[in-house]
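Example 9 (inverse folding). The structure is encoded as follows.
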């Protein structure tokens, strides 16, 4: 049976991903499995370095549009169909988990996240992962192929990978310059009245990780331009970068919007209490290991100010107020 270790070079952190995958291939896999590393990259300058990091001798390169997991899932689905790959592995974290989940949904395969080890046996895959708050190790059987697995984050601490003589099996370009998708079902809501965070249907909450006072002001302007309420985490309020009546969380307002976008906040329990009743939470944060990533419905790994201003621009055009 064949496997593909997926190294996503479009997000950064390639060395850490390769270390986790390499350690897992050496110590976490058992059975008759042979495979390759499938590297996604966006910039030509990154290609050589990513190949050097690959944890297998055989390597396939795919140049793709940056940060488009739906495009990557389509490419992997084709690899399962055309190359006969049964097992796909990603390093731990929200980006890897999203990719294998998309792939399983697209192909009808089985998905399991936070895996400690796998064993291929008689056409099936047996996996181990921590359960019951890491007090026990559970054993799971995956039957439907392809098997789509993300590793437990503990594999990030695996020892350095062995230097290999790599062989490039293919080098393709699937990148596309994608135009922004029109929001056909966009609903424009009226901006909330002053001081009504608890009543906001659309809310933007900024954390201290978004930057300094000037960057926080840019987020506030973008939020108001979109018709969203603007709130902040406790560290922002304590720095006097926003008024105390903007504080969301245990010490401030508890909200229940239809949509909450959290920009640059780590996601401390005090803040989560203030937004947990939101129907849908989007986290914009460059750190995929931030606690907010585990509590959000969607995560954007990028600079929060740039993303929120771009979103405000789209909505302003829809409103006709650009």
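The amino acid assigned to each position is listed next.
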């Amino acid at each position: 049976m064949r496997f593909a270790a997926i190294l996503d070079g479009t997000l950064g952190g390639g060395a850490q991903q390769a270390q986790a995958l390499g350690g897992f291939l050496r110590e976490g896999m058992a059975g008759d499995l042979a495979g390759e590393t499938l590297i996604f990259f966006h910039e030509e300058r990154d290609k050589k370095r990513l190949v050097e990091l690959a944890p297998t001798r055989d390597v396939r390169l795919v140049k793709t549009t940056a940060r488009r997991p739906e495009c990557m899932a389509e490419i992997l689905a084709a690899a399962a169909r055309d190359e006969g790959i049964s097992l796909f592995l990603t390093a731990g974290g929200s980006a890897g988990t999203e990719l294998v989940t998309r792939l399983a949904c697209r192909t009808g395969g089985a998905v399991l996240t936070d895996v400690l080890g796998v064993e291929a046996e008689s056409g099936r895959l047996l996996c181990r992962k921590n359960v019951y708050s890491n007090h026990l190790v559970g054993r799971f059987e995956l039957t439907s192929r392809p098997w789509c697995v993300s590793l437990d984050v503990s594999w990030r601490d695996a020892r350095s990978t062995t230097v290999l003589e790599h062989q490039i099996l293919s080098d393709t370009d699937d990148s596309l310059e994608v135009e922004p998708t029109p929001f056909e079902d966009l609903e424009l809501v009226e901006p909330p009245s002053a001081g009504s965070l608890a009543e906001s249907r659309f809310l933007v909450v900024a954390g201290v990780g978004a930057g300094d006072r000037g960057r926080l002001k840019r987020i506030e302007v973008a939020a108001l331009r979109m018709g969203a309420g603007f709130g902040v985490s406790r560290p922002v309020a304590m720095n006097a970068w926003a008024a105390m009546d903007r504080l969301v969380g245990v010490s401030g307002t508890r909200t229940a919007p239809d949509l909450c976008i959290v920009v640059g906040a780590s996601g401390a329990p005090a803040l989560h209490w203030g937004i947990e009743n939101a129907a849908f939470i989007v986290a914009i944060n460059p750190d995929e290991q931030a606690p907010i990533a585990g509590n959000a419905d969607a995560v954007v790994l990028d600079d929060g100010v740039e993303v929120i201003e771009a979103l405000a621009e789209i909505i302003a055009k829809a409103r006709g107020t650009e």
